[in-house]
Request: fold
Amino acid sequence: MTVIDVDGIRMRYGPVEVLHDVTFRVGAGETVAVLGPNGAGKTTTIEILEGFRRPSAGRLTVLGTDPARGDDAWRARVGIVLQSWRDHGRWRVGELLDHLAGYYPRPWPAVPLLAAVGLTGQADQQVRTLSGGQRRRLDVAIGVVGRPDVLFLDEPTAGFDPVARREFHDLVAGLDTTVLLTTHDLEEAERLADRIVILDRGRVVADGTPAALAHEIVGADEVRWRLGGRRFQESTPDSTGFVRELFAAHGSAIAELEVHRASLEQTYLTLVRHAETEVAA
Amino acid sequence: MIALRSGWRRGLILLRQSFSNGPELFSHLLWPLLMVGAAVALRGRDFGAFSLGALAVPSILGMNAAFGMVSLSQQLTADREDGTLLRARATPHGLPAYLIGTLLLVGGGLLADLAVFLVPAALLVPGLVTGGAGTWLTVVGLLALAMVATLPLGVVLGSAFGTARAQSLLTLPILGLVGISGIFYPLAALPGWLQAIGQVFPFYWLGLGMRAALLPDAAVAVELGDSWRHAETVGVLAVWAVAGLLVAPVVLRRMARRESGSLVAARRDRALRRVG
Reply:
């Protein structure tokens, strides 16, 4: 089942077109990362999907409904992780979650939800006294309190230290819903996403699983080894087969074997470079 | 249904928070008590046959009833700036519940402030009529009308003047209007063109209505045309109420529609730059 269906959306602010023909789909249960450099249009795209902005052209549906026309019943099925700043600072953590649960038909009760995001100890604390990482976990809890069928996260770990980032990844990976997140962090996209949509200058330049993207675009893994005092290096799309033949031919004479798989980072850099030369040309 | 219930709960939680933290509790007590002090200080001064103190108590009451408009407008601006409004927008039934909750917060806080002012003022300032049930019925009815007439205007002002800086600019003309609304000095003593401006806005009529309720009948001699003008009072306030109720939902929806995560993030970055 298709949860998100984006077909040829464009977004124009005055004379500046920030999205040109963005098209992709997200199926039920998938976690998809929209990846791209700053200014690529990631935030605009997710805000259109959340129903906060209206595209200049194109068609889109989220859970079968145009977000710009989404009613309360639609809203109740859509979770949005907003980056809190100082809103609801005086509310107690448990009190806020409990209150917000009351807006949804089948909410996640506050006590187990707090446990799931690791904030049980902070339930009676005021929101403004939370650390940055705790606050972001509360943002996730608020995003999922209504047991949404789709969850949106915009740059969820910007400004996190590595520990908070890791905890956050584990939390998101454990969610049982369709997730669309934006990030400019390759490692984050690779760790969390089943599929990656790479956006550059308002266009989708690639769409696929991390492994498929890497193979499709960079194409080849790199194999290095030493044989009889000399170093060798070979690019090959099938590194496993190549290494098997290497051993079949030379057996234990092979030393210092290294296999470098085509990485998402290479893919990403290749793509963004391509896009830049296209624009320049 | 969900909007009503959630909005009600939200309002009660906000009111509890507002009355259980030191600085806000202090301001809930400080301003009303300062105004009690002002009225007490004025009770020896006379305007015609009446004490200015007795004239001032109902006028201050009327002015403060109208000031709910300003607090609501500031509350909206603050909630827009910090992302509260965006969260409401991301929640089913969130906007109506937000509005109900905020109206309860501002309206409830206002009633408490008025009580803190009126109870000691009625005991300490001579020359007020405070014995009859009719007086209090009129006061309560007028307060209800005051809120219906002015709180929607607060929504409009809060939507139109979207930043904290714009809000502080807004207080100047409002204080000017209070100055020409017969609150601290009878309107009859002002030049005609100022009287005309003063009578357009709700401040004057709320003060007049409160004076009609709380002063002896003879005090009508101080008013324009020697009349309490009950019908005009209700009429002008009702016009403001209808206009506000028509415009407020439209501008609130428009303002909420423009909110998005990136706007709130941009404001946060600006604010953090100012601090840093």
In short: Chain A has two domains: 2-209, 215-280. The mean pLDDT of chain A is 88.
